[in-house]
């Protein structure tokens, strides 16, 4: 009986469409849907707030939103995957530095998108 179950499981795994290796959630690429809300703030369709800091270890709607908005302004965060890793943090640092030097903000240039950085990320032309 055990042998039949093992053979059936192996057959399914090899040819029956069962994924043998787990899919990485960070490998998924999300599509950005840009729009302005009634107050003129940019949105990409995943998170509408201004307080949540995107996760550096897991997929989050705030991470997708921040990556989309950074990409929209020309700061390449890498793959839009919702994980705010090194590429996204580098893009955020460039954004923060540019907002300080070009627009008079006083943002920490730390690569983190939080309550201080969300507003300029939402209102840029």
From TrEMBL:
Top-level taxonomic group: Bacteria
Keyword list, A-Z: Signal
Pfam family, one: PG_binding_1
Residue span(s) of domain Peptidoglycan binding-like: 65-116
Statement: the UniProt record of this protein carries the keyword Plastid: no
InterPro entries from the UniProt entry: Peptidoglycan-bd-like, PGBD-like_sf, PGBDSf
Signal sequence region: 1-28
Protein name: Peptidoglycan binding-like domain-containing protein
């Amino acid at each position: 009986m055990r042998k039949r179950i093992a053979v059936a499981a192996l057959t399914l795994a090899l040819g029956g469409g069962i994924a043998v290796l787990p899919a990485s959630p960070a490998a998924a690429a999300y599509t950005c849907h840009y729009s302005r809300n009634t107050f003129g703030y940019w949105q990409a369709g995943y998170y509408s707030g201004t307080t949540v800091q995107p996760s550096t270890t897991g997929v989050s709607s705030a991470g997708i939103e921040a990556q989309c908005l950074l990409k929209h302004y020309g700061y390449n965060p890498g793959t839009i995957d919702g994980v705010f890793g090194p590429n996204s943090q580098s893009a955020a640092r460039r954004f923060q530095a540019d907002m300080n030097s070009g627009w008079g903000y006083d943002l920490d240039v730390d690569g983190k998108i939080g309550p201080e950085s969300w507003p300029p990320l939402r209102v840029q032309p």
